[in-house]
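Closing statement on the zinc ion sub-project.
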Amino acid sequence: MIKDIVSNEEVKEFFTNELKRNKNSGTYLFYGSDMSLLMEFALYFAKGLCCESVEGDFCDTCSACKRIDSLSYSDLEVLDNPDGITVDEVRALGYTSSSSAYEGNKKIFIIKDISKMKKEAGNALLKIIEEPNRGSFFILLNTNLNILPTIKSRSILVKIKRRTAQELEVDQFTYSFFRGNNDDIKEYKKLDVDLEEGYSYADIGNAVKVYEEKRDIVSKINVYKGIRDFINNRNYILEIDKIFFAEEITRNTGDRNIMREIIKYTVDVLGDIQGLEERLEMKNMMKAPINMKLFFIDFFLKV
Ligand SMILES: [Zn+2]
């Protein structure tokens, strides 16, 4: 039920009011810094639209609710392309949206990282949301509001705030360790792992390698710990060892998403120590077109 959602009271109120209106179609832009939380809220809203047993809310027990949660509902499509949804993907979406629904009378499209779309894809999406087919609902997710203004102006904006440490029921140390990331903290709570226990920065290569293989929270924690150890000791680490640290990362993963995660985590942790200006400067470095290995060396030499 909507009332059971933890945090973001205004959004819960919006869901209730919006679902009451019984619309035929709609486009929403959910934005906020935690993508995993945006996805969680998108699924709540999708359930609200499709639930078979209650009107204007969701029950979590009917077949539609359960299958939306497991992403196996045939009228729910999630588009997720870390490099940006392509124009072909948008066209395929247009086709699906114009054919009839399998289950109920609504089709839900959740599209992640709208700002990463190229202009052509953005314009194709704009055409679809300008004249939506009956029963089509688009939930666009983005970590900021830097998206095509034409798409923004046709969307209902919904800001999703991060859960607080209190809402996630963890102490401040744990909350900061995970930078408030909703999914990470939930996964961590199922484990018995000591976050204060150290992991040497010299072993970062191994941590990254295991994380790339397993993609689980335990190996992610070791990567974070290795970075934390590097940051804590940064004033005593020789340049040659900083270069080694950077090379160990790029030698053990070719996955750009993992690389982005590592930079983002480092920047966020450092930002707490060095202040906002420094943080922005380092974030801007990420935008430059780059040879990843050289970028990593340059980046960690500056840390
Ligand atoms: Zn239900």
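The mean pLDDT is 92. With this model delivered, the sub-project is considered complete and its resources will be redirected to Aim 3.
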